[in-house]
Specification:
binds magnesium ion; globular; binds adenosine-5'-triphosphate; single chain; 3 domains; Rossmann fold; 16 helices; Helicase, Ruva Protein, domain 3; two-stranded antiparallel sheet; Arc Repressor Mutant, subunit A; alpha/beta; 374 residues
């Protein structure tokens, strides 16, 4: 059982259905894919709720009694070996211990992987090591993991989050290695997700890439305002507080519908006010931006001068349709269109700037709002 949170607008991980707004259609679509043996790639702009959705969906799959789910996060991994270690750790956490100790099948898996668990003498935390030293061992290890999971009685669904990470691995063939793995175990369902939308789509939509057309593309959109409004009002009212639908609409627009930013603002408003007024919302926004000052102030140092100027101009101009338009260039004194175009490409490559339905946006909402005030 999860502890109930101190504030109903949770900011970190999934905290149970009560604190999770809507996504009913998305869950149905996911369920349909899994029931029909299709792998899925889930992509979206940042912080819309991909990871939380998967956790919510996995809870439902586990509750149905038909499925077992594993959630692997590759964010911190830099090689196939580290990815295998991440998958092994998740597998061990889920199946490693039975009431009678280390299970026999897990022992078999560990010996196939050359894996050992030792206790860090300083922290006392168990640490996993695996013996992928010789070339070719990666395939062998992935195979052993696949066989172990395939032999489970229930159907297995694995989410690999931050999957775009594998295209940065030291090994050039990482995508091919994982593609082969997925193909070898057709009974295991995979959900691939990642926070870098462009890279995720490219991996599955470019015909030269190993994962080309190997999974159903599923795009996650912002939660609809009509669903968010009763969710927010409900939590306020349950605690004897009020907030108007008009104000929620303003919050939603300011946050560009981005789940994280909406949750953050509501979290603060809920904590500080009983009957929220518009000025309270403005105050909270200023406070939040001020808190981020130290982080955001680093951006000019990480970018070239032109990149920074273009970046800032985009934030000030939202919604911007034509960044090379003469009026825009003149108004923000950006100089020649060719150098602006080069700067823009660099910003887009890092997904600092994104194009959504023809509109150029500073991807990170809070950063955009902070720069617009400069
Ligand atoms: N449906 C929801 N209802 C309420 N809060 C949600 C919902 N979905 C996500 N959140 C909250 O929004 C924030 C962002 O969610 P999450 O981390 O799942 O997004 P993400 O798309 O995986 O982000 P990233 O792009 O960084 O990987 C979290 O604080 C999460 O708790
Ligand atoms: Mg995520």
């Amino acid at each position: 059982m999860m502890k109930s949170p101190g504030n109903p607008f949770v900011l970190n991980t999934y905290h149970g259905k009560k604190y999770f707004c809507d996504r009913e259609n998305d869950i149905e679509v996911l369920r349909n894919h899994i029931d029909n043996d299709r792998n899925v790639v889930l992509f979206a702009w940042r912080r819309l709720g991909k990871s939380a959705l998967i956790q919510r969906f996995f809870e439902e799959l586990e509750d149905s009694g038909e499925f077992e789910t594993l959630y692997v996060d590759l964010l911190a991994t830099h090689s196939i070996e580290e990815a295998i270690k991440a998958i092994t750790t998740v597998t061990y956490d889920k199946y490693g211990k039975t009431h009678s100790g280390f299970s026999a099948t897990m022992q078999k898996l560990f010996s196939a992987l050359g894996a050992t668990i030792s206790f860090n003498p300083l922290s006392g935390i168990p640490e996993l090591s695996i013996g992928i030293k010789q070339p070719g061992m990666e395939d062998h290890s992935l195979n052993a993991l696949g066989v172990f999971l395939q032999e489970r009685k229930k159907r297995i669904v694995i989410t690999i989050d931050e999957f775009q990470q594998i295209s940065h691995y030291a090994e050039k063939n990482a995508e091919a290695v994982f593609r082969t793995w997925v193909q070898l175990f057709p009974d295991i369902r995979f959900i691939f997700s990642g926070s870098h939308r462009t890279m995720m789509v490219e991996m599955f939509a470019e015909n030269s890439r190993p994962f080309y057309q190997s999974a159903q593309l599923m795009s996650l959109l912002p939660i609809a305002l009509e669903k968010y409004t009763p969710f927010i009002q409900g939590h306020f009212e349950d605690n004897g507080k009020t907030i108007s639908a008009e104000l929620i609409e303003k919050i939603y627009a300011w946050a560009r519908g981005q789940t994280y930013t909406i949750q953050l603002i509501c979290n603060y408003l809920f904590a500080q006010f009983n009957h929220v007024e518009e000025e309270d919302f403005h105050k909270i926004c200023s406070d939040i931006l001020e808190q981020h000052q130290a982080i955001f102030a680093n951006f000019p140092k990480m970018l070239t001068r032109t990149q920074w100027n273009v970046f800032k101009a985009i934030a000030k101009e939202e919604p911007l349709f034509s960044p090379l338009n003469k009026d825009f260039l003149t108004k923000h004194r950006l100089g020649a269109a060719s150098s602006v175009s080069t700067a823009l490409k660099a910003l887009q490559k890092q997904e600092l700037v994104v194009v959504d339905e023809g509109v150029y946006l500073v991807h990170e909402v809070l950063l955009a709002r902070w720069m617009a005030r400069l």
